[in-house]
Write a structure and sequence with these properties.
The protein has two domains: about 200 residues, HUPs (Rossmann fold, 3-Layer(aba) Sandwich), CATH 3.40.50; about 140 residues, no CATH class. It contains eleven helices and eleven strands. Helix content is about 35%, strand content about 15%.
Length: about 350
């Protein structure tokens, strides 16, 4: 029985690629590479998985963490970024390099992905397929079942390990062919197209650029915080994060460092949780309290008590809500700070 290692994201295309191979008698090991930036989790999902449990397809998926190597190429991709901070070509090459190692360890014959020719403008063009395969050292080893008939035969096809006539020739951005094939396989459910990698999101990418301009080697918790809340950069370069809702609040609190400040309204009325960096100035902390009030249910009051806690200690202040002009200046300053650092 031929053996293959599959790059598995949890999306419909990757599921179909695996099922096609299994139908052709190939023993497939699906591997999901965890980068810390998604592919199977989108910013819009607020951390909830966007794809069903692979067990409903009869699949057992292995997970491999490649976050450290991936982040280095995010900062300096050989083939550049997409429209935002997404290094799609470098990302696919990295995953294929890692998949090739697994293929060699397991004595597998080839690799598969769920890519469709022309589906993504940066990484799924015919010329880019060639570049990625060469960079990853997998030329001839990578079979793309959904669009194989539009590409040169791979080694697996030439050796007769896979019947090329039973592969597909999908192309373009339409998902109708995949949906029809999903119906043919009788899939009970599957992931709908979503944001995928958060590096394609303009807001997240802007925050990441600003963070890297200040700190080229941020901690994982700093990156995780980029997904959450409203972000403000003070005049002296410190970040204030204001939770948008209870889910944000719950996610922000455990990410606070022992010396960071956490702020919340003292009353029982609806209040966001605000996080301010440990080294923030007294003026910056006062601003964090005012922003906390501005985005609370007490935003129309002239003066509101706010509780500030740090490292087990807590005290209260009474402040007026920040006004819209102030907020706009903070956003402008964040943009100007990033532009200045880039220059």
């Amino acid at each position: 029985m031929p053996k293959a290692i599959a790059l598995y994201s949890g999306g419909l295309d990757s599921v179909l690629a695996v099922l096609i191979m299994k139908r052709l008698g190939v023993e497939v090991t699906p591997v999901q590479f965890i980068t810390g930036f998604g592919c199977s989790v989108s910013r819009r999902s607020r951390g909830k998985p966007t794809s069903p449990n692979p067990e409903i397809y009869g699949l057992t998926v292995e997970k491999r963490h490649i976050g450290e190597a991936f982040f280095e190429l995010v900062k300096n991709p050989k083939f550049g970024h997409g429209r935002n901070m997404n290094p799609c070509v470098d990302c696919k090459a990295l995953m294929l390099k890692e998949a090739k190692k697994i293929m060699e360890e397991r004595g597998a014959d080839f690799l598969i992905t769920g890519e469709v020719l022309g589906q993504r403008p940066m990484s799924q063009r015919r010329d880019v397929f060639f570049v990625i395969e060469k960079e990853a050292g997998v030329s001839g080893l990578l079979l793309r079942p959904l669009c194989a008939k539009l590409l040169k035969p791979t080694i697996a096809e030439e050796k007769g390990l896979v019947d090329r006539d039973r592969l597909y020739g999908f192309s373009g951005r339409s998902r109708k062919p995949q949906m029809n094939l999903a119906a043919e396989f009788g899939l009970p459910e599957y992931a709908q197209p979503a944001g995928g990698c958060v590096l394609t999101d303009p807001t997240f990418s802007s925050r990441l650029r600003e963070l890297l301009a200040r700190n080229p080697s941020p901690a994982q918790r700093d990156i995780r915080l980029l997904r959450l809340g409203r972000h403000f950069l003070t005049a002296d370069g410190f970040t204030i994060i204001i939770g948008r809702d209870e889910r944000d609040n719950d996610a922000i609190e455990p990410l606070a460092g022992p010396d960071d400040y956490l702020l919340r309204l003292s009353s029982d009325c609806g209040s966001p949780l605000a996080l301010a960096e440990s080294a923030i100035s007294k003026e910056g902390l006062n601003l964090a309290a005012r922003l906390c009030v501005r985005y609370s249910a007490s935003r129309n009051q002239s003066s509101v008590p706010v509780n500030i806690s740090r490292n087990g200690d807590a005290y209260g202040v009474e402040v007026a809500p920040a006004d819209d002009r102030e907020i706009e200046q903070l956003r402008t300053h964040a943009h100007e700070q990033y532009s200045a650092d880039r220059a």
